[in-house]
Amino acid sequence: MPAVVIGGNDVLTSAGGISDPGGLGNGYWNRWYLAATKHFNLYGELGVHAAYVYNDRLDYPLNGVALGVNWSPRFHAPLNVMAEYDSRRLNCGLSYRIWKDHINIVTELTECKYPSVGVYFKVHLK
C-alpha cells in the first residue's frame, strides 16, 4: 500500500485587505494537498509520488496534479536521481550523500534548463 497524506500549509492566512487592497489576501503559501508515495525495489530504491495541490488564490499557477519519481541505484546508493512535474513544468536533478547522509550536495535543472546547485546539512533526530 502507498503512504497517503492529506495536509495543508498556511491554511488560515488572510491579509484582511490591509496588505492587499484588491482583497486576494496574502496567502501565497496557502495550499491544501493530497499526496501518495510508494517505493519499490528495482535495481535500487525507486520512489513514485503523486499529489493533487489546491490553492484558492486567483493568481496561483500550480493548482493541479504533481508527479515525481526518484531512484537510488543499488550499485551506488549515495546517488539519488529525481524528476518532478509540478502541474506547470518539468524539473530534474540529483543529490549525492557526501558524509554519512549528513552533508549532501544537490543539483537541479528547473524546467530542465535553468541550473541550481546547493549543499545541505541534515541533523537526524534519533
Summarize the SSE layout with pairings.
Elements: E1 3-9, E2 31-41, E3 44-54, E4 64-73, E5 79-85, E6 90-99, E7 103-110, E8 114-121
Structural write-up:
The chain is mainly β and 126 residues long. It has strands at 3-9, 31-41, 44-54, 64-73, 79-85, 90-99, 103-110, 114-121. The protein has one domain (3-121). The chain contains no helices and eight strands. The protein has an eight-stranded antiparallel β-sheet with strand order 1-2-3-4-5-6-7-8, with no helix packed on it. The radius of gyration is 18 Å and the shape is globular.
Report a brief summary of the structure:
By secondary structure, the chain is mostly beta strands. The protein contains no helices and 8 strands.
Order of helices and strands, N to C?
Answer: EEEEEEEE
Tally of DSSP β-strands: 8
Number of helices: 0
Our count of domains comes out at 1
Oligomer: single chain
Order the strands across the largest sheet as they lie in space. 1-2-3-4-5-6-7-8
User: Mean pLDDT, nearest integer?
Assistant: 86
- Percent strand equals over 45%
The low-confidence runs, each spanning 5 or more residues with pLDDT under 50, are none
What are its keywords?
126 residues; mainly beta; globular
